[in-house]
């Protein structure tokens, strides 16, 4: 029997569960989270985060290229420094980016 496509509510619940599980000092991109869920809906991950991310470690979900969440770079930097997230200098936007190669996290598969 084929698996059914999750509803929007199930998708959102799964996104939030993954974000909650990202360890301190580690990160995932919106694309990473979508891929773990068997989807290419990274924009939908972003929508879930924009509606529900305030109570989660939102700074651990980054944009492609290691860039912090848009318009939250200063607040995110405080979290990255407190958690020891590896950072690199960047000439664009925030002046820093996350060392994605070092800090990328992939959830364990059951």
Task: Explain what this protein looks like in three dimensions.
The chain is mainly alpha-helical. It has a single domain (8-103), classed as Winged helix-like DNA-binding domain superfamily/Winged helix DNA-binding domain (Arc Repressor Mutant, subunit A), CATH 1.10.10. Helix content is 43%, strand content 9%. It has five helices and four strands. The protein has a two-stranded parallel ribbon with strand order 1-2. A two-stranded antiparallel sheet has the order 3-4. A hairpin with a 6-residue loop joins strand 3 (87-89) and strand 4. The chain is globular. The relative contact order is 0.18.
> What about the largest sheet?
2 strands, parallel
Helical coverage, percent range: 40-55%
Q: Compute the CA-based radius of gyration.
A: 14 Å
Tally of contiguous helical segments = 5
Overall mean confidence score, pLDDT: 91
By CATH reckoning, the class would read Mainly Alpha
From the spread of the alpha carbons, the general shape counts as: globular
Amino- and carboxy-terminal Cα gap: 20 Å
Strands ordered across the widest β-sheet: 1-2
Instruction: Give me the secondary-structure category.
Output: mainly alpha
Strand portion, in percent?
5-15%
Which residue ranges are poorly predicted, with pLDDT under 50 across at least 5 consecutive positions? none
**What is CATH's topology name?**
Arc Repressor Mutant, subunit A
The CATH architecture comes to: Orthogonal Bundle
């Amino acid at each position: 029997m084929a698996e059914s496509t999750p509803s929007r509510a199930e998708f959102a619940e799964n996104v939030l569960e993954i974000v909650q599980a990202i360890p301190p000092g580690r990160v995932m991109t919106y694309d990473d989270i979508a891929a773990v869920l068997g989807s290419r809906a990274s924009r939908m991950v972003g929508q879930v985060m924009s509606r529900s991310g305030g109570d989660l470690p939102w700074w651990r979900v980054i944009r492609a290229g290691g860039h912090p969440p848009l318009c939250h770079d200063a607040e995110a930097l405080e979290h990255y420094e407190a958690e020891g997230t590896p950072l690199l200098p960047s000439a664009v936007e925030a002046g820093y980016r996350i060392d994605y190669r070092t800090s990328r996290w992939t959830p364990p598969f059951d």
